[in-house]
Each structure stands twice: as structure tokens, then as C-alpha cells.
Amino acid sequence: MAQRDPLKDILIELFGPDPGTRNKRNAQSAPESVVRAYRTFAPIAVASAALAFYAPQLADTALTDTVDQAGQFITTVHGYRWPLAVLASAWSMLDILRWHGHRQRRALESQLRQTTRHLPVKVTVAFPPGICSLRSAKIRLPRGAIIRPKEMDEFTTAVRGAAGRTGTCTYTVRHHAHRDLILIARTPVEPDTRSPRHKALQTALSAGTIFKEPAVTVASRDEDGVETGYKITFTPSLNSGARGFQTKVDEALAALAGHHESGRTWATEWTPSEGYLVMYLRAPLPIRVDHPLALVDENLRHLPYATGAANLSLYWDVSTKSNKPHCLIVGPTGGGKTSVIRTLLTEASRRGIPFLGVDPKMIELDGLEGYPGCAAIVYDAVRSAMLVRALHAEMMARNHYVHVKKIEPSQLPLLIAVLDEFFILSGKWQRLAKDEDEEIRAQIKQLDPLGAWADLAVLARSAGIRLLLGVQRPDASLFGSSSGNARDNFGTRISLGNLSQDGALMMWGDAHVGREVDTSIPGRGVVTALDGSPVDAQMWWTPNVDPHPNKWNQLSKEEKAIVHGLTPTESPTFEFFSTELREFVESERVLARRAREYGDAPEPSVLTDFATDHDTVGADDFADAIPASAVTEGMVILLDDDNGDQVPVTVDTVTVMRDKDTGDVLETVLSINTGGRVKTTVHFDATEVVMLPEPDTVLTTA
């Protein structure tokens, strides 16, 4: 292939034949160009100016017979040399501008033909044209020419790519189809003053598929002009309203924004129905918060217990109008569950709300016994069943009082009932129902504590009775057979430590919430916010209020000051609507006083060679219980042998039968290998629990 000569090409373009004539001669089928050949007359002006300047030198070479005529002409021309020079320069400049305009018209015609396959009728560029780039242009199309959107995009890209290489301007290309016209205009590019964080957010969102048509704008700045908030708009979709999707986007946006120089953390507030979210800065959660002595919330029906983001106080609303009347606390031993219970009960006491409780482990709530506002703390399993039945009678008596007196339920005095370690308590009731003593079996059957508890969880709200439930792990079986309605009444929820996937679903309805809690910080967890959504929070630390010297002397001076500051000067008043609860509380107080006066405990002994493992496992020496449906293969549990003693066994297989419509547990079957090929099958109903042999380690919050 022969090499092209650039100089020859330019000369042909300047002085050669019309391109349309060449097209007709070279290819009869090729369309004729609407841009005529470039013609220049500047060389004539330049030659005239040069002749005027060099006229004297040319006169010396003139012929003799023409000397007089030549001399006169040369003298005349030489006198106009400077005007001719100016004219030649202006004419040359004009031709240079015409040359650039010609090149730009040719380029636009070629780009239009290549991208849209249309030959323009006329191409006009602004005069004077831009030297380095196109200023503006107008392209007249054939009548009725159709240009598809994709072709128009390709033409726009070609125009911007060929004419806008400086980076200081961009081109707007508009197609007026009704006028068969394309207008091209150059607009300066505004300098990008966005911060690196702003650019990173916009670039990542534009490159990803999270949102459709995302746009990031600055929503707020601080006094120094540092960006503290961003508004991200997008086209609403089905995903934008899902909580799981929002949680993942929140994490991604926080990672993109990075650590802020103020030390605060990023949070988001979604408005998916209107297609935008706002990123803002909030103060980080504190590492430790001592129980404030001042009333953080003046509403006497709000029991504050934790601090959330931006120093927001979170509370349990125990008022009659509350849609979250009962409280559920989930947390392992040492996670701060007992401290949260102490916080809520001391706040209830200082606000005039009495309480009573059940502590099957005998070590969690014993310090509250005798505290102002505490009616009783029950430790015995049979007495606990009697208390639950008495609470049921109190609930029915209160509802009857409201019915007869025609008063509003909000006029009833409030009462808080605490059931800590509910699974252990439930396990004890189930063992008592199988006890060898026929009288005890009949008593537990008559009291029916699990049935009474299920009724309380659903109906106690309107009677002014509030339930505070503490468990080590959540499970639907703790709410009885009608788990759906009962669970919804426990709207105030607190989870400490990391939950399992099933636990997160049960507590928060989301398998991702509460599974990444920083357990190195005591009291850190997830709680129900004021709007009902789960949020991270730091629980308040309330020390043990037990006045016994063995407990009191372990407290620091600051902790003693907290206990003194929280203790109310007047004890809340107890008002009983049923004789069953009043008589139970009176008898329990008598038993507690007698136990304090005459009670004794054997001193610890050293394990000898004559002791056996069988002797060390007692009926009340377990530290945790779980629902039978939560048992997994290979787990070691405690079961009763032929003598009624609990022995550790290993579970081979687990079969959980559920309702096909609701998914609730109906029955659990455990297969136990007792040796050899013989296997024992044990059946558990939906509410039964099994005991774990490993004792808990009692931890204290530093």
C-alpha cells in the first residue's frame, strides 16, 4: 500500500477539484458531500505584498525599453507596501479561520454519516470558529430524517471525543426532530470542588447496581465548612424498602465514607417512599454509663435504662397507652442482664411503681429483696408456680374491677412482675409435674403455671401488670403455644452479646441484627428504639443494691453513692385487687424474714475419693436450660434415670415436628444411645426444656 503524502493531501484539498466531483468520478454510488471544497485567495494578497516590498530589486532587472514604465509602476506599488502587508496578513488570518471552519464542517458531516447514516443538508459552524475546539454548530437534516436514541448517543460521543479534548469544556448536542435540526453548543465545565469523600460516594454508587440513577449532594457542613451530611437520591424500588437491604447499604456507605475527622460515626435515615436517604454524623456510643442519679425522663411511666447514639436515652414505656408494654431481656451470664434488670427496677421504684420477682438461680435478684418497692422475691419452684397463679388471679380481679367500676385501665396502679431465667424455672415446673410425690404433682397440675403464664403474656397489659422476662437465649416456646400473640406483646426487647441466626430472627425479625455486638465492652447490646426499630445501645451500670456487708463492702465509693442516690425516700404503695396475691405476698414476706433469721447453709466440703460424679449432680445444680427443640446432635444434656436422678447423656439424633402452616414446634423427639445398639427415644412437647450439665461461670461487671 502506497504511503500518503500529507503535504500533497493538503494541496489537493486547497487547490484540487471539488470533493463532490471526485466522488462522482471515483465512485458513482457514493453520496455527494454538502461541504464544498476549500478555496483560498490569500496567496494572491501575499504575493502582491511581497512584490511591493521587493519592487526596487525587480526594477534593476527590467528591460531598457520598459524602464520608464516599470519605474513608475514600481514606485507606485512600493508606496503601498505597508497597506498591502496589512491586507495580506488580514486575508491570511481570515483564510486560516475559514480553514478551521471547513475542517470542523467536514468532521461533523463525517461523524453524522458514520453514526446515523444520514447525509446532512447543510452544516454551519459559528464564525469565527474555535481554533482548538468547536464553538457551536448547526446541522440541517433531510426532511423526516429519523435518528434513533442509540445513534444519537454515538454521535454525541463522537462530537465530544473529537472536539472536546481540552477538558475545560463539554458539548451539549440536542436533536430537534420536528425541525430536522441538530444544535451543538459548547459550555464550560465547572471546576470539580467536591471533597474526596463526596467523589468516592458518587463514583461507587454510579459504578454499582445498588441504586438506579443515584445522586449525592452535601446536606450539611459544620462551622469550619467540613461536610457532615450527605443526601443520596435514587429511583425507588422494591429493595429500597427492605430492612435487610438497608442494613447492608448502611454498612457499605459507612465503609466508603470512612472515619470522620470529628471522631463521630456515620448513620443513615431512610425515606424510601420518596427515593432518598440522608447520611449524618452521630456521637459514638460511650464505653460505660453509670446509672444517672437525676431523672433523665420526667415522665413517670418511662423507665430509662440505656444510652443510644447521639446520647439519646432509651426507655421502657410501661404506660397503658404503650404498644410495647412488656420487656424481654436476652443475654448470657456475665453479659449485663442482671444489671439491666436492676436498672429498670430501681427506676420503677423511684417513680412509685412496685415490683415482685422470681429468681430460680437464687443469685440474680436476691439483692433486691427488701428494697423499697419490692413486694417479694421468690426462689422456690413451687412458690414460683403459686406466684404466677396469684398474678393470674390479680389480673382477673383487676379486669373485673375495671368492668364493674367503669373506669379506664390507665387508672389502675402499675405492678411489674420479673421472671428471670425463665427456661430454668420452666424446667423445674416440668420436673415437679413428674415428681414421685403425688401431692406435689397434683399441686403443680392444679396451679398450671405455664398456662397461667401464657395468659399473662397476652392479657396482663390492660390490667396494669407489666412483665419483665429474662432469658439466656430466645425461643418461641417460652411464650407458650400461642407464641405469635404473646411475642408481639414483648415489644420492648434488649439483647446482650451476640445472637444466633435463629435468635436474631426471633428477637428482631432479621437474621443480621444483634450478631456483631462488641462483647469486649460490658453492657453493649441492641435494644428497641423509640420508633420500634433495633438500635445499638450502651446499658447503664447499676451496682448491686444488697445492703448485706458481704455485698456492700465490695462496692467502691462511687458505686455506693449511686445506690444511695437511687434509693427513694418513700417506698411505693402496694395495692392488691385479689386476696390470692395479697395473701401470697404476706406469706412470702414471713417466710423470707424467717429464712434471714434462722436460715443456714452448709459449709463447702472438699471432694474425696469416696465421692462420685453422681453425688455432685443435684436437682438444682444446673445453671442453664434450653428448649428441647434447640438441642443439637452430639449435645450433652441431663435426663432422669430409673432412680429419679439426673445423669448426663449424649444426644444422637434430634427430630423436631412443626406445624405446617405456622411453623410452631409441636413435638421434639431425642434419640439417646444408652450403650451398644440399644437406643432410647424421649419425647418433649412444644414448651418443655432440657437441662445442661455444665455450670455457669458467674461474672461481675467491672
Question: What does this molecule look like?
Answer:
The chain has about 700 residues and is an alpha+beta fold. Helices cover about 35% and strands about 20% of the residues. The chain contains 20 helices and 25 strands. The strands form five sheets. Strands 9, 10, 11, 12, 13, 14, 15, 16, 17, 18 and 19 form an eleven-stranded mixed beta sheet that branches. A hairpin with a 4-residue loop joins strand 3 and strand 4 (about 180-190). The relative contact order is 0.07. Mean pLDDT is about 80; it is low at about 25-30, about 610-625 and about 695-700.
Which percent band covers the strand fraction? Answer: 15-25%
Approximate helicity band: 25-40%
What Rg is obtained from the alpha carbons, in whole angstroms? Answer: 45 Å
**How far do the termini sit from each other?**
88 Å
Shape: elongated
Largest sheet descriptor: 11 strands, mixed
What is the number of helices? 20
Helix and strand content put the structural class at alpha+beta
What ranges have pLDDT less than 50 throughout 5 or more consecutive residues? 23-28, 608-623, 695-702
Mean pLDDT: 82
> What's the β-strand tally?
25
Mind sketching the topology for me?
Blueprint: H1 6-15, H2 19-26, H3 42-53, H4 55-59, H5 67-79, H6 81-116, E1 122-125, E2 136-140, H7 149-163, E3 169-176, E4 181-188, H8 196-207, E5 215-221, E6 227-233, H9 243-257, E7 265-271, E8 276-282, E9 289-290, E10 302-307, E11 313-317, E12 327-330, H10 337-350, E13 355-358, E14 374-378, H11 381-405, E15 415-420, H12 422-432, H13 438-447, H14 449-459, E16 465-471, H15 483-489, E17 492-496, H16 501-508, E18 524-528, E19 534-541, H17 549-552, H18 557-566, H19 579-598, H20 613-616, E20 625-627, E21 636-640, E22 646-658, E23 665-675, E24 678-685, E25 689-691
Parallel strand pairs: 9-19, 12-16, 12-17, 13-14, 13-15, 15-16
Antiparallel strand pairs: 1-2, 2-4, 3-4, 5-6, 6-8, 7-8, 10-11, 10-19, 17-18, 18-19, 20-25, 21-22, 22-23, 23-24
Helix pairs in contact: 3-6, 6-7, 11-12, 11-14, 11-19, 14-15
